[in-house]
Design a protein that fits this description.
Elements: H1 6-14, H2 18-25, H3 29-37, H4 44-61, H5 65-68, H6 82-92, E1 96-101, E2 104-110, H7 111-120, E3 136-137, H8 143-150, E4 155-160, E5 163-169, H9 170-179
Parallel strand pairs: 3-4
Antiparallel strand pairs: 1-2, 4-5
Helix pairs in contact: 1-4, 2-3, 2-4
Length: 180
């Protein structure tokens, strides 16, 4: 169980008053005040109620993939010329594009893969330079999971019932964290 000294910090982070927390936990406001000031050692049962209420409220406040994602999806087809993919990236100011074949995600093309291809090969179409598909998550996936995936992939795809509904980049994640 968490430390009693954390009650005030967690409550403030959630933006809740002592009275609101007391009502949620089924205890008195004066008990919350005494716990936060360190003047009382509450019973285990009351402590459990308080932390259960805080935990429930924190989960409601948690940001998920559905809140982070960009729903405007700019993609390319596997047969598209690399020059057109570059033009799309410039036009929409993005650094990676999902490769879609008949509404199915089959890969990813990024500035890096294009640069490598232009320097090392004679590739002319997206299919010849695309990377493996990025990870796919549901819109309820937590920000922590998305953040960990973005450490290893340039983009995360959000899907619902097998349909691509959004994309998340490091830029989207940083933008959300900066606003918080």
């Amino acid at each position: 169980m968490e430390e009693l000294g954390e009650v005030k910090k967690i409550r403030k982070k959630i933006g809740m008053t002592q009275t609101e927390l007391a009502n949620r936990a089924g205890v008195s406001q004066s008990l919350i005040a005494k716990i936060e000031s360190g003047r009382i050692d509450p019973t285990y049962t009351k402590t459990r109620k308080i932390f259960a209420a805080l935990s429930e409220l924190e989960k409601k406040e948690e940001v998920n993939a559905g809140q982070l994602m960009t729903s405007r999806i700019v993609s390319v087809s596997p047969g598209m010329p690399i020059k057109e993919a570059i033009a799309k990236m410039k036009k929409f100011q993005i650094s990676q594009l999902p490769v879609m074949d008949r509404s199915k995600l089959i890969g990813l093309v990024s500035e890096s893969s294009i640069l490598d291809a232009l320097l090392k090969s004679k590739a002319t179409i997206v299919k010849e330079i695309m990377q493996e598909s990025p990870p796919i998550v549901s819109k309820t996936t937590s920000i922590q999971v998305v953040s960990n995936l973005l450490k290893h992939y340039p983009i995360v795809v959000v899907s619902e019932e097998g349909k691509l509904i959004g994309l998340i980049t490091k830029s989207d994640l940083l933008g959300k964290m900066y606003k918080s």
